[in-house]
C-alpha cells in the first residue's frame, strides 16, 4: 500500500514513523495541504491520508477517484470537510473517531484558566519586568455555572473536570443521556444561566453558526465562551460585536471558521490579510490557539496507530470499523455495512 500523506508536520512524521515498520505500507510525506492544486501528488498511491484543514470537496474527491484511489484515511475525528455525496460508492472514508478526548477537554480547561486569571498577559508583563497586577483580576470557578453544548466523549471529560472544580454543570445535547450531577436544559436556558459556555458538538447543518447574534443576546453579561470544536459553530463577526459590547467577557478559541488559510503555518514575518482574524487577535480578552487542542503525545500515537490499522483493515478486506457511515441512498434498513463491513 502506498500512502500519500498530506499536510505533514514534523510531529506527524515522528509518530507515524515509529509504527510504519510493523505494516506492509510505504508513506510518501507531503508538506502541502491536499486541495485542487496538490491532489496530483497522490498519483500512483493507493491511499490519500488527510487532516482537518485539507480540502476534500467534489473536485478533489473526483480527482482522487480518477487516479484510482479507493481509500481516504482521515487522521482526525471530524469529517465535515468531506463531500460525501461525491465520495459515496467511489471512495471509502475512514477516520480516527477518538484519539484523546482528554487532550481536547484539557485544552478547553487550559483556555478557561488562562483567560480567567489572564496568565497570557501576566507572562508578557513579567517578561518585560512589569510586575504590576492591575487589570488581572479573575473570578473563582468554584460555584460558577458552566454550560456544555455537546456531551459526547470530549464534553463528558470536560464536565468531569468542571465538577472537580466545584462548578455547577448544565448541558445541552441533541441526544441527551443521563450524566450524574448534570442538568440537561434547552439552549435558551443554557445561554441565560451560564457564566462559561464550552462547545463540544460537531459542525453540522444544525450547529453551523449556532453562536450568532441571537444566541449571544441571550447570554449573561460577561460570559466566557470556549470553542475547541469547529470554527463555524460561531459567527465570528457576531462574536466580535459581542466582545465590543462586552456581552462576551472573554473568548478562548482553538478553532476559527476560516482557519485553513492560516492555522498550522508560520506567518510571523507577514501581515494577516484576514481582517476578522486580525480583529480577534487584537482583543486582550481573546485567546486564540491554532487548532492544537489535540496535540499531546498520547493523541499523536493514537492517531498514527488507528490510521495505520484502518488502512490495514482495508488492505486485508476486513471490516472497516472506522468507516464514516454514509447516508445510504437506499435508507438505513439497507445498510450494507452490517452485512459486508463496508458502506458499499
Ligand atoms: P462525540 O461524537 O463523542 O460527541 C459529540 C456530541 O455532540 C454527541 O453527544 C452528540 O449527540 C452531540 N450533538 C450532535 N449534534 C448536536 C447538536 N445539534 N446540538 C448539540 N449537541 C449535538 O464527539 P467528540 O469526540 O466529543 O468531539 C466533539 C467535537 O470536538 C468534534 O466534532 C470535533 O469537531 C471537535 N474536535 C476538536 C479537536 C481539536 O483539536 N480542537 C480534536 C478532536 C475533536
UniProtKB/TrEMBL annotation:
Tell me the ranges covered by the D-isomer specific 2-hydroxyacid dehydrogenase catalytic domain, including all copies: 3-324
Give a yes or no for keyword Cell wall biogenesis/degradation in this entry.
Answer: no
Q: What is its EC number?
A: 1.1.1.-
Q: Name one GO molecular function term.
A: NAD binding
Keywords recorded for this protein, A-Z: NAD, Oxidoreductase
InterPro entries from the UniProt entry:
D-isomer_2_OHA_DH_cat_dom (IPR006139), D-isomer_DH_CS (IPR029753), D-isomer_DH_CS1 (IPR029752), D-isomer_DH_NAD-bd (IPR006140), D-LDH-like (IPR058205), NAD(P)-bd_dom_sf (IPR036291)
Matching entries from PROSITE patterns are given as: D_2_HYDROXYACID_DH_1, D_2_HYDROXYACID_DH_2
Enzyme class comes to: oxidoreductase
Q: Does the keyword Cytoplasm apply?
A: no
Q: Which domain of life is it from?
A: Bacteria
All copies of the D-isomer specific 2-hydroxyacid dehydrogenase NAD-binding domain together span 109-293
Q: Which PANTHER family match?
A: 2-HYDROXYACID DEHYDROGENASE HOMOLOG 1-RELATED
Q: Which family does it belong to?
A: Belongs to the D-isomer specific 2-hydroxyacid dehydrogenase family.
This one is known as: 2-hydroxyacid dehydrogenase homolog
Source species: Petrocella atlantisensis
Q: Which gene encodes it?
A: ddh
Amino acid at each position: 500500500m502506498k500512502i500519500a500523506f498530506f499536510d505533514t508536520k514534523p510531529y506527524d512524521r515522528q509518530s507515524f514513523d515509529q509504527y510504519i515498520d510493523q505494516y506492509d505500507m510505504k508513506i510518501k510525506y507531503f508538506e502541502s495541504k491536499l486541495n485542487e492544486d496538490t491532489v496530483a501528488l497522490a498519483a500512483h498511491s493507493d491511499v490519500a491520508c488527510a487532516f482537518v484543514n485539507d480540502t476534500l470537496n467534489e473536485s478533489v474527491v473526483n480527482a482522487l477517484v480518477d487516479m484510482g484511489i479507493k481509500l481516504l484515511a482521515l487522521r482526525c475525528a471530524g469529517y465535515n470537510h468531506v463531500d460525501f455525496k461525491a465520495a459515496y460508492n467511489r471512495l471509502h472514508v475512514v477516520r480516527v473517531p477518538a484519539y484523546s478526548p482528554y487532550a481536547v477537554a484539557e485544552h478547553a480547561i487550559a483556555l478557561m484558566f488562562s483567560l480567567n486569571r489572564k496568565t497570557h498577559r501576566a507572562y508578557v508583563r513579567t517578561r518585560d519586568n512589569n510586575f504590576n497586577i492591575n487589570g488581572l483580576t479573575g473570578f473563582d470557578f468554584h460555584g460558577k455555572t458552566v454550560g456544555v453544548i455537546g456531551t459526547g466523549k470530549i464534553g463528558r471529560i470536560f464536565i468531569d473536570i468542571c465538577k472537580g472544580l466545584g462548578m455547577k454543570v448544565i448541558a445541552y445535547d441533541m441526544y441527551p443521556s443521563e450524566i450524574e450531577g448534570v442538568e440537561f436544559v434547552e439552549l435558551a436556558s443554557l445561554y441565560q444561566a451560564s457564566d462559561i459556555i464550552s462547545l463540544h458538538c460537531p459542525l453540522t447543518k444544525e450547529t453551523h453558526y449556532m453562536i450568532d447574534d441571537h444566541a449571544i443576546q441571550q447570554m449573561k453579561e460577561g460570559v466566557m465562551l470556549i470553542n475547541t470544536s469547529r470554527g463555524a459553530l460561531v459567527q465570528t463577526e457576531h462574536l466580535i460585536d459581542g466582545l465590543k459590547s462586552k456581552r462576551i467577557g472573554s473568548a478562548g478559541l482553538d478553532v476559527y471558521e476560516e482557519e485553513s488559510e492560516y492555522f498550522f503555518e508560520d506567518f510571523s514575518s507577514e501581515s494577516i490579510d484576514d481582517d476578522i482574524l486580525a480583529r480577534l487577535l487584537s482583543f486582550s480578552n481573546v485567546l486564540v490557539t491554532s487548532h492544537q487542542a489535540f496535540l499531546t503525545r498520547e493523541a499523536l500515537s493514537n492517531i498514527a496507530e488507528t490510521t495505520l490499522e484502518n488502512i490495514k483493515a482495508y488492505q486485508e478486506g476486513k471490516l472497516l470499523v472506522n468507516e464514516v457511515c454514509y447516508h445510504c441512498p437506499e435508507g438505513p434498513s439497507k445498510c450494507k455495512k452490517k452485512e459486508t463491513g463496508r458502506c458499499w
